[in-house]
Amino acid sequence: MNNNYELYKVFYWAAKTGSLTQAAKALYITQPSVSHAIKQLEDSFGLTLFYRNPKGVALTQEGAILYSYIEQSQILISTAEEKMAALKNLDSGELRIGGSDSLFKHYILPYLEDYHRLYPGVRLHLNHGTTPEVISFLKEGRIDLGVVRMPIVDPQLEVRESLQLQDCFVAGAHYAELRGMVLSLDKLLEYPVILFSRNSRARMAITELFQSYGITLKPEIEVGSVDLLIELARKGLGISYVTREFVSKELENGSLFEIQLDVALPPSHVGIMTMRNMPLSSSAGKFIELMRLI
Amino acid sequence: MNNNYELYKVFYWAAKTGSLTQAAKALYITQPSVSHAIKQLEDSFGLTLFYRNPKGVALTQEGAILYSYIEQSQILISTAEEKMAALKNLDSGELRIGGSDSLFKHYILPYLEDYHRLYPGVRLHLNHGTTPEVISFLKEGRIDLGVVRMPIVDPQLEVRESLQLQDCFVAGAHYAELRGMVLSLDKLLEYPVILFSRNSRARMAITELFQSYGITLKPEIEVGSVDLLIELARKGLGISYVTREFVSKELENGSLFEIQLDVALPPSHVGIMTMRNMPLSSSAGKFIELMRLI
DNA sequence: ATTGTTCATAGACGTGGTCTATAGCTCCTG
DNA sequence: CAGGAGCTATAGACCACGTCTATGAACAAT
């Protein structure tokens, strides 16, 4: 009774077509093989499954009972195989990405659009959060990949550097007097500074930089959205510390200008983060491939 | 993608136990075999199905989707195998018998009782009808076996002679004067004769016998039930032509007595009839075996 | 009769699934 | 930190078993 499940495939086709010869054709094997397989099944059960007629075969009572189960089973397997093929060529499946809202909006979005156009069958899930939150999501298996600011030092994670960003201080028309000037850090602090919320990686980086010059950076305003940072600077409420690439539009149309400093601000890097030693889902793999390609 | 379904069995156990080693134990094969099988599946799909951890394996997104189908499929197969085993040792299944009411009542019933006691899981279906009807039932596959009067001459059918019966004429107290007398056929016909309905095999046989002596047998009363034949004879409405074995009780307690004739009435044979060249269901096979045994 | 179906049987062949042996890895423990 | 005990992956050998070809037997149709 310890059957080879392969026999059920043969049984299924024999019952379905009502002919061992037809079953053989469907399975691309010869009729004696089918005959032999059916015999094996019958012997293993100690039951006769088919009536053999000169014009084919017909299920016996017992065979019909077996078929009622095996038919369902085979249909499930076929469906599963189709599903797998669909997952393979990304006709279905899902892609779950973690990252910050600003990175989604200013960096990932165009890739997502391309990706969605190429693979409309793949459902997209975006989970926003801070860098440590995104790392948690990843480790919990709630996302396939995270897009965050480097550096990330975690042996469990594999990080691909994908983009270099340059943070800078920007101001609006209200501080037009500063346009073209080169400020020292001390001088800068005479103006109200607007920073992103405390637990962001960019905020930590700039705070450390000032610290290294012995200066304590204390913001006038603290917000949780990059859009607000930009908006507040434009309205003249202070000088915002933002990623230059994310305000390129405003810099171009002159609604914001960059404050020149007498020290170099360190560039920041964005990385695509995945679990090390864990295979990527094909949807995630294709997405990363697409990001590096463009 | 033309997969060996055997691989799904391995996949199922690997996913279920979360360990290739455990799956190997469940399947009574070695761990490298399991490893190899999973690899084959993954290669065939072009997808990774498991995360390999140092403490076992876990399904990937894609693997989990596959599992949702395969699990159902495997459960169906297991259920089917259990069902087959149950059918084999007659814990389930059905037995469909065709025959006349009188044969059921007087001949088959005791065997049915034994059978039901031995295999209470087998559902019994009794289909009553005349001999030609029973033959039709059999050929249409509505019954597994028929119990009818012989002779049956049909190349499609296989008939096992199972019982010899002796028909005879019986009367009740009203005709007590005939007790011990030996009657000629002519003399018999001076009394009202009660026969079974025209289309029965027993009726045809006795009509032919009279015909062979140049006598036309015309019954006074014609009924469709053996019980009625007996009852009418007991009430004195005439002389009934019945199967002696079916009135043994009445002959013993004296409510009926057999009319002696000066010619021998031919014995009739009961046969168990099945389709030739068609395998018996195990339930039917066991029943026939039981009938011959006792 | 002849031809064309069907399934069953016999025997040969060769692939592929299973095995053993071993390595690499991580985690735990003394 | 070394050693042991898990786990899975890999390599290579072997032989069972599933497939094949060839043929037979039974039946249906022409």
Poorly predicted runs of 5 or more residues of chain A: none
Helix count of chain A equals: 11
What is the count of distinct domains of chain A? 3
The end-to-end distance of chain A, rounded to whole angstroms, is 57 Å
Structure description:
- Two copies of one chain form a homodimer.
- With 294 residues, the first copy, chain A, is of the alpha/beta class.
- The first copy, chain A, has three domains: 6-88, Winged helix-like DNA-binding domain superfamily/Winged helix DNA-binding domain (Arc Repressor Mutant, subunit A, Orthogonal Bundle); 94-162 and 270-293, D-Maltodextrin-Binding Protein, domain 2 (3-Layer(aba) Sandwich), CATH 3.40.190.10; 165-267, D-Maltodextrin-Binding Protein, domain 2.
- Chain A has eleven helices and 13 strands.
- Chain A has helices at residues 6-17, 20-27, 31-45, 61-88, 101-118, 131-140, 185-188, 201-212, 226-234, 248-253, 282-293, and strands spanning 50-53, 56-59, 94-99, 123-128, 145-149, 157-171, 182-183, 193-196, 221-223, 239-243, 257-258, 260-261, 267-275.
- In chain A, strands 3, 4, 5, 6, 8, 9, 10, 11 and 13 form a nine-stranded mixed sheet that branches. A two-stranded antiparallel ribbon of chain A has the order 1-2. Chain A has a two-stranded parallel ribbon with strand order 7-12.
- In chain A, helix 8 (201-212) links the parallel strand 8 (193-196) and strand 9 (221-223).
- The longest helix of chain A has 28 residues, at 61-88.
- The radius of gyration of chain A is 32 Å and the shape is rod-shaped.
- The two termini of chain A are 57 Å apart.
- The mean pLDDT of chain A is 90.
- Chain A binds chain B through residues 1, 3-6, 8-9, 45-48, 51, 60-62, 65-66, 69-70, 72-74, 76-77, 79-81, 83-85, 87-88, 93-94, 144, 278-282, and chain B through 1, 3-6, 8-9, 45-48, 51, 60-62, 65-66, 69-70, 72-74, 76-77, 79-81, 83-85, 87-88, 93-94, 144, 278-282.
- Chains A, B: InterPro entries: LysR_HTH_N (IPR000847), LysR_subst-bd (IPR005119), WH-like_DNA-bd_sf (IPR036388), WH_DNA-bd_sf (IPR036390).
- Chains A, B: Residues 9-60 form the HTH lysR-type domain.
- Chains A, B: It holds the Pfam family LysR_substrate.
- Chains A, B: It comes from Paenibacillus montanisoli.
